[in-house]
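Private note to self, pasted from the team thread so I don't lose it. Backbone tokens:
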């Protein structure tokens, strides 16, 4: 398989996504609703992002393991 370069919007890694999670959490408190994204889901997405970075660096496929026990 071939890797394809994709253009993405400029973000500050780990900062922008954390701000969105906190914003959703605060809004859920004010509006008395469940949060849209659970912390465990965010950790899984960070695991995927890290695998993508490592794959891009070494050009190899990364096999993800479920390291979370919940």
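Design output:
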């Amino acid at each position: 398989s071939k890797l394809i370069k994709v253009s993405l919007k400029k973000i500050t890694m780990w900062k922008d996504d954390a701000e969105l999670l906190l914003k959703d959490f605060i809004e859920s408190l004010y509006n008395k609703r469940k949060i849209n994204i659970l912390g465990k889901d965010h950790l899984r997405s960070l695991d995927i992002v890290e695998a993508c970075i490592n794959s891009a660096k070494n050009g190899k496929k990364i096999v993800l393991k479920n390291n979370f026990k919940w």
